[in-house]
Amino acid sequence: MAAHPTYKYFLVSTPAPFVAHVQINRPDKLNAFFEAMWLEMKTVFDTLSYSPEVRAIVLSGVGDRAFTAGLDVQAASQSGILAKQAESMDVARKAQGIKRHVEEFQACVASVEKCEKPVICVLHGFSLGLALDIATCADVRFCSSDVKLAVKEVDIGLAADIGTLTRLPKIVGSFSWVKDVALSARVFGAEEAFRVGLVSQVLESKEKAVDAATKYASLLASKSPVAVQGTKELLNHARDHTVSDSLRYTGVWNSAGIQTDDITKAMLSGLKKTKPTFAKL
């Protein structure tokens, strides 16, 4: 089992070989986030991204009540970016400070997406606001049948600005549906999330969803890390670029990737009907 650093707001464990389980750990506040938490989350995922002991990651929240209820509004009102702005500061300087804060916040959440390893997000209980920002950065999403999801930001007086409005339309097939949930901030459940393609699987409970995600992560971890990490990189690039740009990038990427010993090991294991063992990456 891999040893992981100790964090204040996250638990990191190794439930299976080459699999890390990251849990948001503030259950007394429904795992709601404030600044120190999203800064620490970036440290967690940047560390796992480069760890040769990790090939796939499961992300969930501690407790049964919530993956995360989103932003800790009370903490934000007392010590958030607006509370820090001096009343005497002119508008341009206030705006620059807020912009830098938002960019830092976006980068912290995007660390889930930029992590080299595939991330399987398990949504359960209350999964509101920031929960969708984080989940849309993940590669695969499972949920429990009792999940309560919402793009909640309009109910606190702003447009979502940490990633949901950018990523959610690229994940689901209906722009109308995205506008429906983003404009209304209405709560929707597991069946609807599955129907529109936001989640890949719905499980009976959080425990079963985490177990299914861990088994799936173990499957990914059993494959060539060169192939899996390359596939994540190329799919994310394809999402954000034209077909011709993506084909060119794929050719450049695989000019190195195709030289890996993992291809020989995988092909021989198929012929010999054996399970291949791949070197760490």
TrEMBL record:
<keyword id="KW-0413">Isomerase</keyword>
<dbReference type="InterPro" id="IPR001753">
    <property type="entry name" value="Enoyl-CoA_hydra/iso"/>
</dbReference>
<comment type="similarity">
    <text>Belongs to the enoyl-CoA hydratase/isomerase family.</text>
</comment>
<dbReference type="GO" id="GO:0005739">
    <property type="term" value="C:mitochondrion"/>
</dbReference>
<dbReference type="GO" id="GO:0006635">
    <property type="term" value="P:fatty acid beta-oxidation"/>
</dbReference>
<keyword id="KW-0007">Acetylation</keyword>
<dbReference type="InterPro" id="IPR014748">
    <property type="entry name" value="Enoyl-CoA_hydra_C"/>
</dbReference>
<dbReference type="InterPro" id="IPR029045">
    <property type="entry name" value="ClpP/crotonase-like_dom_sf"/>
</dbReference>
<keyword id="KW-0276">Fatty acid metabolism</keyword>
<keyword id="KW-0443">Lipid metabolism</keyword>
<dbReference type="GO" id="GO:0051750">
    <property type="term" value="F:delta(3,5)-delta(2,4)-dienoyl-CoA isomerase activity"/>
</dbReference>
<dbReference type="GO" id="GO:0005777">
    <property type="term" value="C:peroxisome"/>
</dbReference>
<protein>
    <submittedName>
        <fullName>Enoyl-CoA hydratase family protein</fullName>
    </submittedName>
</protein>
<dbReference type="InterPro" id="IPR045002">
    <property type="entry name" value="Ech1-like"/>
</dbReference>
<comment type="pathway">
    <text>Lipid metabolism; fatty acid beta-oxidation.</text>
</comment>
<keyword id="KW-0576">Peroxisome</keyword>
<dbReference type="Pfam" id="PF00378">
    <property type="entry name" value="ECH_1"/>
</dbReference>
